[in-house]
Structure formats: C-alpha cells, structure tokens
Specification:
This protein has helices at about 30-40, 45-50, 55-75, 125-170, and strands spanning about 10, 15-25, 85-90, 95-100, 105-110, 115-125. The protein has about 170 residues and is of the alpha+beta class.
Length: about 170
C-alpha cells in the first residue's frame, strides 16, 4: 500500500505516487463508478475519459489525477507517458447533517455526504514500455505505407477520371 506521506512507495514491486482529495463534496457512492472507469488505464486515456464524462465528480477526480501525475514527475522524475492509474478509490468522509422544516412544526434531516478520493499512479514495467514502443513504431510504419500508397494511387485515379470525361465528351 502507499505510504501515508504520499511519497514514492512500492505497490506490487512498482514505483507509484499518489494524490488525495479530502472532504470532496460528493458522495463516495457517486464517485466510485467514475473511478472504476479509469482504473488500470494509462494517464492520457484516463484524462480523456474524465474530460468526456458527464458526471460532475469527474472534474474533481481529474484534478486529483493531474496532481498525482505532477507529484510523480516532480518528486520522482517519472515522465507522464510511462504512468498508469494503478489504484483509485473513494472513502466516505464526514457527513454534514442539516435539517429541513416540514409541515406541522416537524423537521426532516438532510445528509450532505463527503468523501476522500485517492488516485495512485504507477510506472509501467520495462516489458510493457517496450511493447508500447514497438506498437507505436508498427503503427507509424503502417501509416507511412498507407500514405505512400494513397499518394501513388491519387494521380492515377485523377488521370482515369480525366480520360473518362474526355471520352464522354468525344462521343
């Protein structure tokens, strides 16, 4: 588990860094589905998911994620591209108790729940980083081949169209 001071720790023999948002004014029940969506995703992908999420808690979680990434890069020197969300969870915080006046002099209680959000980012292993790099190189090669094929096909197709229009005009 992560150390209490938020410094570099070992989770599953990986370097990891965490960030905690305390007393967030949202219930843990509402935050957990959003956290489940970003768990075990790369930092870039998790940030995209949070940016396009329609839930309001995604803004708070996004800030926590960015803080964890900043902690990892500044304190531990790990670049953002090598990080993924290894853990994220929401613990219940204190509940603010309020009362609403009701009919006949009564009152009903309103519970305004808070939570503590924790996001832990870890560095990918060397094998995973190498696999990502080879995939990126293959993707770049494939794009280059497709662009070369498109550039050689386009003039021929334009010439064919021009020839067919000339033939139609002659007839």
């Amino acid at each position: 588990m992560a150390s209490l001071d938020g410094s570099l720790s070992k989770i599953e023999n990986r370097e990891s860094t965490r960030s905690v948002v305390r007393y967030a004014r949202v219930s843990a029940h509402k935050a957990r589905p959003v956290l489940n969506q970003i768990r075990n995703k790369s930092v870039g992908r998790a940030d995209e998911i949070l940016a396009f999420s329609e839930r309001s808690v995604s803004d708070v979680i996004s800030g926590c994620l960015q803080s964890a990434v900043a902690n990892a890069s500044n304190n531990d020197g790990i670049p953002q591209e090598e990080l993924f969300v290894s853990e994220c969870f929401a613990d219940e915080g204190p509940t603010l108790k309020r009362f609403r006046p009701r009919a006949r002099g009564r009152a009903t209680s309103i519970f305004k729940r808070t939570c503590h959000l924790t996001v832990v980012v870890s560095r990918y292993s060397e094998e995973e980083l190498e696999a990502f790099q080879t995939r990126a190189e293959l993707r770049d090669e494939r794009k280059n081949l497709e662009s070369e094929a498109d550039s050689t096909d386009e003039p021929e197709s334009k010439n064919k169209k021009a020839r067919s229009s000339k033939e139609e005009s002659v007839e």
